[in-house]
Amino acid sequence: DQQVKQNSPSLSVQEGRISILNCDYTNSMFDYFLWYKKYPAEGPTFLISISSIKDKNEDGRFTVFLNKSAKHLSLHIVPSQPGDSAVYFCAASARIGTGNQFYFGTGTSLTVIP
Amino acid sequence: EPEVTQTPSHQVTQMGQEVILRCVPISNHLYFYWYRQILGQKVEFLVSFYNNEISEKSEIFDDQFSVERPDGSNFTLKIRSTKLEDSAMYFCASSRGTGANVLTFGAGSRLTVL
User: Fold this and answer.
1) Using the beta-carbon criterion (under 8 Å), do A98 and B50 form an inter-chain contact?
2) Is domain B5-113 in CATH 2.60.40.10, yes or no?
3) Chain A residues within 8 A of B48 when measuring between CB atoms
4) Do the chains contact at B42 and A51, CB–CB below 8 Å?
5) Torsion of the alpha carbons at B56, B61, B64 and B70, rounded to the nearest 10
6) Where in chain B are the domains?
7) Over the stretch A6-22, which tens digit does the pLDDT of each residue have?
């Protein structure tokens, strides 16, 4: 049961243009959403997050948009840089028992072409 | 910046052997997790741990897996009798607590079962 879905396994963008990575989820109990970036042979690193009570969160070149009615979120990177080339994982969090449980998508591999 | 430390970075073992993967979470974090990623596949949740006990586990986390926090700093994942399909990157993660919080991942331990 894939509760968090990233339907695009890969994306290529020219340097300087906007990268848009998409994520869909099914569980309406999710209350927090995160994006992680992963380079080969490294662990995922936290990039940006958004609470379910918001619809937009911006941090520098990175903006996450949340559309709760559509159960959809997206990550915008503008302008894209070659160093942004990595796998991006969308994650959603829900309160389970005494703590939070995190569910991850399958990832989108972003390639930024110089 | 505090980080999650995992050892070993790579372990090669024979099928049927026991393996212990070690993790040192961030010191003021209370929740601990193990995830794995089989090559080319999604990041999969294995188990979460809080207050010295398992708080949730996935179907993957069967009787051959166990976790413990023996000394208040290390958090270990033991695989009793490894199978070929256990070959994967195993990621340890920790988080501060409930509410809006972030998982911080280690760099991962690559397990190769021959």
Assistant:
1) yes
2) yes
3) 99, 101
4) no
5) -40
6) 5-113
7) 999 999 999 999 999 99
Tell me: pLDDT of B100 over 60: no
Average pLDDT over residues A58-79: 97
How many structural domains does chain A have? 1
Nearest-Cα distance to chain A for B42, in Å, is 4
CATH number of the structural domain spanning residue A53 = 2.60.40.10
Query: What are the tens digits of pLDDT across the range A77-107?
Result: 999 999 999 999 999 988 776 677 888 898 9
State what percent of residues in chain B have pLDDT above 70.
97
Q: Do residues A31 and A25 touch, judged by C-beta distance below 8 A?
A: no
Q: Which amino acid is at A31?
A: D
Output the CA torsion sign for B92, B97, B103, B104. negative
Q: Does A42 touch chain B (CB under 8 A)?
A: yes
Partner-chain contact B105 A43, CB within 8 Å:
yes
CB pairs under 8 A between A and B: 67
CB contacts of A5 in chain B (<8 Å) are: none
Burial label for A74, CB within 10 Å (0-12, 13-18, 19+), is middle
- Residue A76 lies in domain: 4-113
